[in-house]
Amino acid sequence: MRINKMLKNIKKIIVGSIIASSSLFANGQLSIVSAGVGDLDNMTIKAYNAIKEADIFFTMDGKAGEYSSLIGNKPVYKAGHGIFANMDNTKMKKEELEQLKTETKKIVLEGHKAGKKIVLIENGDPTIYGPQISFLKEFKELNPKIIPGMSSFNAANAALQTAIIGGIKDASGVTLTIGSDKNKLISTLADSKSTLVFFMDREFDKFIDHLNTLYSKDTGIAIVINAGSKDKEKVIIATLGTIKEKVTEKLPFNHLVYVGDFLK
After folding, report:
1. Could you tell me the CATH number of the domain that includes residue 24?
2. Which of 2, 114, 158, 174 is the most exposed, fewest CB within 10 Å of its CB?
3. Do residues 146 and 32 make contact, with C-beta atoms less than 8 angstroms apart?
4. 166 in the same domain as 142
5. 227 alpha-carbon distance from chain centroid
6. What's the pLDDT score for residue 160?
7. Which residues 6+ apart lie within 8 Å of 115 measured at CB?
8. Number of C-beta neighbours around residue 161 at 10 A
9. Based on the domain organization, do 89 and 196 belong to the same domain?
């Protein structure tokens, strides 16, 4: 009698565990998936599979674009540009921005509850100045994950065809930061003699003038444009004293600037 009661209790526990487990896996998954940078063949297999298997998609402009062959007829929604980090630069009106936030939350939460795989397609490394990283915080209760991919930094390093840390002078490492004459951190970093990699410099001449106040004019500088693109990638190598002569037109947004003795 006692054994039968014990067996019944064990059975209840097992059934309860199965139900709990089923309920857990019934929920969906929100993922920020990096499709890499440059050409599509820079995409990782893991990212490719995640996109192929997903049910619902978000892209910055709400279009399948170059990923249409992977997405097919599945729904694609607009993610905007950092809408949950208050950094939207699409010149949307406040009402439109709030509406986009509300719609995005509704789609993600309902999709997750229905057990759907939701993928936000990003480029490069979402954790390095990525506009969509705020989705992690906004939907943290859903335990979202990042699927990494090749970043512009990885691709640009390869384009330079050299070790970006080499020799005693560069032993202090590599620092990634924003390229701006208003970035007060640069003067401190310049003293460290580490290799500096600058993202998003938008006033090139002014920025180079600022660097020339911190470094000697024979300091090496490299610019990698459209890293990872077979047809568009371009590398310019010079010194701080000669770089303006080599850059004769406005640089595209997709470029990185390297400064350091590793280029000598």
Report:
1. 3.40.1010.10
2. 2
3. yes
4. no
5. 14
6. 96
7. 26, 27, 28
8. 7
9. no
Structure tokens at 213: 């106040």
pLDDT higher at 179 or 73: 73
Same domain, 118 and 133: yes
Residues 16, 126 within the same domain? yes
pLDDT at residue 17 is higher than 90: no
CATH number of the CATH domain containing 195: 3.30.950.10
Q: Select from 128, 150, 172 the last residue of a domain.
A: 150
- Segment 97-116, tens digit of pLDDT: 999 999 999 999 999 999 99
Residue that is written with structure tokens 């019944």 in the block? 8
Q: What pairs with residue 199 in β-bridges? A: 178, 256
Taking the whole predicted model, whether its pTM rises above 0.85 is answered as: no
Within 10 Å of residue 39's Cβ, how many Cβ atoms?
Answer: 16
Distances (CA, A) of 240 to 16, 125, 174, 260: 68, 28, 18, 10
Q: What are phi and psi of 103, to 5 degrees?
A: -65, -40
Give me the DSSP letters along 43-69.
Answer: S-HHHHHHHHH-SEEEESSS--GGGHH
Residue 170 has pLDDT above 50, yes or no: no
Q: Which two tokens stand for residue 18?
A: 């199965």
Q: Are 179 and 199 in contact (CB under 8 A)?
A: yes
